[in-house]
């Protein structure tokens, strides 16, 4: 079997930075200090298990941060939550990805001018919750063109942005409909370059292999979208978390397989999947 691994597979800069900062904090902490993250640091069970083993706690609210070292993850948090963390925690390590912070700043800038913000993304995703927090109560989250149609017309001050890991094609379709509905509206293309490159490479790879394997958390939004991109090309696509999830009997039918991974998937998990596929050659 020929296996082609995407060059863009695995950690994006934002996730790598957040993990490095957390590992550095673990190395430097005093014996009586406790490190925690507000929500899961990244959407990957295997990495979270590793952090737990090293004593990193996961808290769900700023109220639990009192006296602890708190890491704000790459997705960022709403401004109110951020303030509370700085007030309650012993120390805050702000690992908000620079690109996410830029989107937060754009929303804040337009909100101050009285704009409403439409965010294309997953309503319950931490990044979107954080972004919405900057819209001064005038943030609306949509997922598709139909949701856009439900928003009443008439408002001239409208800003459109996307969650940094949104599907490019979905966003492009919404931009088109948005320009028709709100001719005076402002569009900011906020999908991260890392997401775009990853999706483009998967599209290209899907054109030259028989099947695609996408490695990453089953609850990782960007991994799910990557699998959607591969599937949309019409080839069989398998989303797996680890090599144990591979259906070897099924995989053995293919002569060429492409492998990519979400932005929160560590290299060792990708390596394990590739090794497992390679064993099919030896059996
Ligand atoms: S996908 Fe892009 S914006 Fe999102 S955390 Fe990674 S580098 Fe930052």
- How many domains? The number is 3
- CATH third-level topology of the largest domain: Cobalt-precorrin-4 Transmethylase, domain 1
Number of strands: 12
Parts with pLDDT < 50 across at least 5 consecutive residues: none
Largest sheet: 4 strands, parallel
CATH class of the largest domain: Alpha Beta
Supply the number of helical segments: 11
**Strand order of the main beta sheet, please?**
1-12-10-11
InterPro entries: LytB/IspH (IPR003451)
Binding site for dimethylallyl diphosphate: 43, 75, 125, 220, 222, 264
GO molecular function, one term: 4-hydroxy-3-methylbut-2-enyl diphosphate reductase activity
Binding site for isopentenyl diphosphate: 43, 75, 125, 220, 222, 264
Explained architecture:
It is an enzyme of class 1 (oxidoreductase). One of its GO terms (biological process) is terpenoid biosynthetic process. Belongs to the IspH family. With 283 residues, the chain is α/β, with parallel strands linked by helices. The protein folds into three domains: 2-10 and 193-282, 3-Layer(aba) Sandwich (Cobalt-precorrin-4 Transmethylase, domain 1); 13-96, Rossmann fold; 99-187, Cobalt-precorrin-4 Transmethylase, domain 1 (3-Layer(aba) Sandwich). The protein is 43% helix and 18% strand. It has eleven helices and twelve strands. Strands 1-12-10-11 form a four-stranded parallel β-sheet, sandwiched between helices. A four-stranded parallel β-sheet has the order 3-2-4-5, sandwiched between helices. Strands 7-6-8-9 form a four-stranded parallel β-sheet, sandwiched between helices. Strand 2, helix 2 (45-53) and strand 3 (57-59) form a beta-alpha-beta unit. The longest helix has 16 residues, at 13-28. It is flat. The relative contact order is 0.16. The model has no long low-confidence stretch (mean pLDDT 95). The structure holds iron/sulfur cluster. Iron/sulfur cluster (SF4) binds at residues 12-15, 74, 97, 99-100, 164-165, 192, 194-195, 263.
């Amino acid at each position: 079997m020929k296996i082609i691994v995407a060059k863009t597979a695995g950690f994006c800069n934002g996730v790598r930075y957040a993990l490095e900062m957390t590992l550095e904090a673990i190395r430097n902490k005093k014996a009586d200090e406790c490190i925690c993250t507000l929500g899961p640091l990244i959407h990957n069970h295997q990495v979270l298990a590793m952090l737990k083993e090293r004593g990193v706690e996961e808290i769900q609210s700023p109220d639990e941060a009192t006296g602890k070292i708190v890491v704000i993850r790459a997705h960022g948090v709403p401004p109110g939550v951020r303030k509370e963390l700085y007030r309650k925690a012993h120390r805050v390590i702000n690992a908000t990805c620079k690109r996410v912070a830029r989107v937060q700043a754009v929303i804040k800038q337009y909100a101050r001018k009285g704009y409403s913000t439409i965010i294309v993304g997953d309503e319950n995703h931490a990044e979107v919750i954080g972004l919405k927090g900057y819209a001064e109560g005038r943030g609306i989250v949509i997922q598709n063109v139909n949701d856009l149609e439900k928003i009443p017309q008439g408002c001239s001050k409208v800003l459109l942005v996307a969650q940094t890991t949104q599907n490019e094609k979905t966003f492009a379709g919404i931009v088109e409909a948005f320009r028709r509905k709100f001719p005076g509206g402002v569009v900011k293309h906020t999908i991260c370059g890392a997401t775009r490159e990853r999706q483009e490479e998967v599209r290209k790879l899907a054109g030259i292999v028989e099947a695609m394997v996408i490695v990453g958390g089953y609850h990782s939004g960007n991994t799910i979208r990557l699998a959607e991109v591969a599937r949309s090309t019409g080839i069989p696509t398998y989303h797996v978390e680890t090599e144990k999830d591979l259906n070897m009997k099924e995989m053995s039918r293919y002569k060429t397989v492409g492998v990519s991974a979400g932005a929160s998937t560590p290299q060792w998990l990708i390596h394990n999947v590739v090794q497992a596929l390679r064993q099919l050659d030896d059996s």
